[in-house]
Amino acid sequence: MSAQRADQPRIAVIVPTYNRSELLRRTLAALVRQRIPVGEFEVVVSDDGSSDDTGDVVAGFADELQLEYHFQENLGFRASAARNAGARRTSAPVLAFVDAGVLPGPDFLSAHLSAQLSGSAVVGYIFGYQPDGPAAPLDETAWTLAPEQLVRRYGDSPEFRDVRHLALERFDFDLGSCAVPWQWFWSGNCSVRAADFWAVGGFDEDFRSWGGEDTELAYRLFRHGARFVVSRAAWAIEAPHPRTTVPNLDSGSANMLKFLHKQPDTVVELLWTWFARERTQFQIHHDWNVEDEYLLVLDAVAAAKPVDVSDELARLRRTAGSARIAVMGCGDDVPDWLATAALFDFDRDVVQNATHQVSHAIGLRTALPDNSVDLVFVTSRLRTLWRRWETEIRAEARRIGRELASPLAPVRTVVGENRGQ
C-alpha cells in the first residue's frame, strides 16, 4: 500500500443501508467500541433512499465517529451503487464493507488491517450468518450483551457459526491453496485495498436485486491478481432480522445468470448451476463447494487435451444440412464451415487460441437465447463431464435447440420443440 497522509484514515467502513435504522444504530454503536483510535478510521453510511429515521440515527453518532452520510434517491434496490458511492467519499487506502445489522467485534478494524498485510481481499467471519434459515436460536436477553460477550458465550455453537464455516475449515481457513477462493468473499464482512477495488471498477451497478454482486466483484479481483485471505479475528455478528428466503434465492439465481453472461467462464457456469439447483429446493447447501466441481473440470480439461474431434465434425457436416448449430467441446481445430455456429469449449487455451469465436463453457448454461439453434452437438471431448453432467447438458440443449446429437449419446434425440423452457 502507498504511503498515506498524516490526516488520512487507515481504513474506512462502508455501510449501505435501506430502512434499517435500528439495525444501523447497533452497527454504529459497535464501531464506536473499536479499539483502534477513532482518528484512524472513518465510517461512511450510504443510504439507498430510506424513508425512516436513518439520517437522524447517523447524526446521533456524529460526536463519536468520523462519519460521512451519503443519501441517494430511492430508485429501487441499488446496494452496489450505494457501496460505490460510499467508497468514493473516502481517501482511506483500505475499504471495509459491512451490512447494516452486522455488529463488528472490538478488534474488527485492527484485524482487517493486519490481514491486509498478507492479502488484498480479506474474508471476515460472520457469526450467526445463516442467509437461508432462521437466526441463531438465542433468547432475546442474549442480544443485550456486547458482541464479544455473545461470541464468548455462543461462539462454539454450530448454530451460531458462519454458514461458510465448514467449507473454510476444510482449508484450515487458509485460501492460499484454494482454486476458487473468491466464492467466499461476501459483502457482509470483507475488506479490500482501495487501489484494487477501483482498478476493477468497484461493484457492478447493473446488479439491482439481492445477491451475487459481491461474488462477481471477487471474481474480478481474483482475475486482477488479488490475494484472498480469511481473518477469523476480523469477526462480526449478524443481528437477527426478518428474511425473505425464497425471493432471495430466486434473485440470487437470476443474478448468478447475469454474472455468467458478464463473465463467461466454466467456474461461473458451475456456480450458476449450484444456485439454480438449490433455488428449486428453496435452500442452499453450503457444503457443496464449487472448488470440488471446478477441480474435476480441470481434470477433464487435461483428459481432453489429446482428443481430436475433427472426424466427428466432418460427419456432422454430412448430416447437418442447413441447421443452425451449437457445438459443445468444439476443440482447437474448428473447420471453416462451422465459423457461424455457436461454438463452446471448456478448455481456456482453446478459447484463447481459437481462429473462430469460441465461448468458454461446458454447456450447463450458455449465453444463447431460448430456441436459438436447431441442433446441439456434443463432442467426445466432453466424455468425462458427460458422465457427471448429462442431465444438465440435455436440459440446456432443450432450452436452446430442438435436437441433440453426440457420439456420447448414440441415438439422436429430439429434446425441445422450439419453445422457451
Automatic annotation (TrEMBL):
It comes from the Bacteria. Belongs to the glycosyltransferase 2 family. Pathway: Cell wall biogenesis; cell wall polysaccharide biosynthesis. Residues 178-228 form the Galactosyltransferase C-terminal domain. This is Glycosyltransferase. It comes from Actinomadura meridiana. Residues 13-168 form the Glycosyltransferase 2-like domain. Transmembrane segments: none annotated. Keywords: Glycosyltransferase, Transferase. The keyword Transferase applies.
